[in-house]
């Protein structure tokens, strides 16, 4: 089952991930939200829309902008709606 791990802690786990551009998007309800802190950082993807970011924080260790999501994905990118992906040191196992 795919997992996202930061600082030896599982922050997300689900057998219902969606892979887009090599990134696994976990259902929002499969993510331990107590480890996520919203940031003011945003990026724009030409086909998915505007991404919002979280810092991933476990026991004081921070993965800066280590998770992202699309609050309102564009038409054609609906598969990432209500899902969160990880990077920047957060280990995602297949």
Number of self-contained structural domains: 1
Low-confidence stretches: none
Instruction: Give the structural class.
Output: mainly beta
CATH level-3 fold name: Metal Binding Protein, Guanine Nucleotide Exchange Factor, Chain A
Can you put this structure into words, describing what you see?
- By secondary structure, the protein is mainly β.
- It is 0% helix and 56% strand.
- It has no helices and nine strands.
- The protein has strands spanning 3-6, 9-13, 18-20, 23-27, 36-45, 49-58, 61-69, 83-86, 91-93.
- The strands form two sheets. It has a six-stranded antiparallel beta sheet with strand order 3-4-8-7-6-5, with no helix packed on it. Strands 2-1-9 form a three-stranded antiparallel beta sheet, with no helix packed on it.
Which helices and strands occur, and which strands form pairs?
Elements: E1 3-6, E2 9-13, E3 18-20, E4 23-27, E5 36-45, E6 49-58, E7 61-69, E8 83-86, E9 91-93
Antiparallel strand pairs: 1-2, 1-9, 3-4, 4-8, 5-6, 6-7, 7-8
List keywords for this structure.
94 residues, mainly beta, 6-stranded antiparallel sheet, 3-stranded antiparallel sheet, 9 strands
């Amino acid at each position: 089952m795919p997992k996202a791990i930061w600082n030896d802690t599982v922050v997300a786990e689900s057998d219902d991930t969606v892979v887009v551009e090599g990134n696994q998007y976990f259902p929002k309800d499969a993510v331990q939200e107590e480890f996520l802190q919203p940031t003011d950082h945003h990026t724009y993807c030409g086909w998915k829309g505007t991404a919002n970011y979280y810092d991933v924080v476990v026991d004081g260790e921070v993965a800066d902008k280590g998770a992202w999501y699309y609050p309102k994905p564009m038409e054609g990118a609906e598969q990432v709606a209500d899902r969160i992906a990880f990077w920047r040191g957060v280990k995602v196992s297949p």
